[in-house]
Amino acid sequence: MPLINSVEIRYLIFCDKRFLRSAVKELAEEFPSLKIESTDPSGRFIVGSSKAAARPGELTFVESVIPVSIELDGMKYVNKEVLIALQEVIKSKDRFKIEALNLSSHSGANAKTIEVFLGQALEKQGLVADLDNPTVLVYVVLAGGKIFICKTDEKYVLDAFRANKFGKDEKISRAEFKLKEAVDYFGIDASGLKLALDIGAAPGGWSNYMAKQGAKVIAVDNAALAYEKLDMRRIVHIPKRAHDVDMESLKGLDIGILLMDMNIAPADSANLAIRFADILKKGAYLILTIKLVDFRIEKHIKDVEEILSKEYRGIRLKKLPHNRQELTLFAIKK
């Protein structure tokens, strides 16, 4: 399993295969020195190299750009050369955590099995694992007949759909993970928000998350919420369609964030956000998902930004790990 050497810096660029074309275009614009070498057949990541260190700006479709520390030929992670390589990457003073992603059809081991095996083997060598507060994150990716070992201080979720990523609290739906990621990525202090307005709330994932942060929530949806799982002392359910809400009844409230995760066309979501902007205070946050109902991605983004710019500033978009055929948008009320 020989080490592959290169004078260039090699990168794993993670993205969603549904947005692969958009991610490649974005890389060409934001990281022009990058040479794309290959795309993993899964569409999960791109292998690239550059003689310049990656300093791309904020990216929408690219989830993360991570430098490769060591690249090995072969797919057997139960191998002393893998352990030797990891010991080169992890220093004795480090508290490490390993995250694995197995995209190989030749190895049936799941990510958890790989992480446990490698972690325990390194601990036997005297290194210190710390799953809660590591000083160093090491990613081990098995794909395309290779093992990529990456050391980074960037907290990126290799496998977003593993249940242990956001703790063991009961979740109402997958949507709750999306809001958690959005709050973290866009730097929102959710604990400082007193009142949230959740449009299209059912079954209640986003309302549940905000209630757990200490906010009171007005949840609007003509469908039922998962009442038995929600703290209804903190949530008021208005069982109506968004267009039927009495706007006068909401005026004057100290709404700090407007949440919208609705399965409607992008422009319709944006227009609804404009309708509710009238009741938001200056500086209130907007988080909404843009459902990309077809492949006219650039047009949808342009339309949404044009509509929202009438009432909102600081518009940012990101494909977050738990987004599927959608993007998450953040903005601030003017």
- Helical segment count: 7
How far the N terminus sits from the C terminus, by CA atoms, comes to: 57 Å
Name the CATH homologous superfamily of the largest domain. Vaccinia Virus protein VP39
Form type:
globular
Unreliable residue runs: 1-6
Radius of gyration: 22 Å
CATH-scheme architecture of the largest domain: 3-Layer(aba) Sandwich
Mean pLDDT: 89
Q: How many structurally independent domains?
A: 2
Element-by-element helix/strand order: EHEEEEHEHEEEHEHEEEHEHEE
Structural class: alpha/beta
Helicity, as a percent range: 10-25%
Q: CATH topology of the largest domain, what is it called?
A: Rossmann fold
Biggest β-sheet: strands ordered side by side in the sheet: 12-11-10-13-14-16-15
Summarize the structure in words.
The chain is globular. α4 crosses α5 and α6 packs parallel to α7. The protein is α/β, with parallel strands linked by helices and 334 residues long. The chain contains 7 helices and 16 strands. 38% of the residues are buried.
Notable traits:
single chain; about 325 residues; alpha/beta; VC0802-like; Rossmann fold; 2 domains; 7-stranded mixed beta sheet; 5-stranded mixed beta sheet; 7 helices; globular
Structure, briefly:
The protein is an alpha/beta fold and 334 residues long.
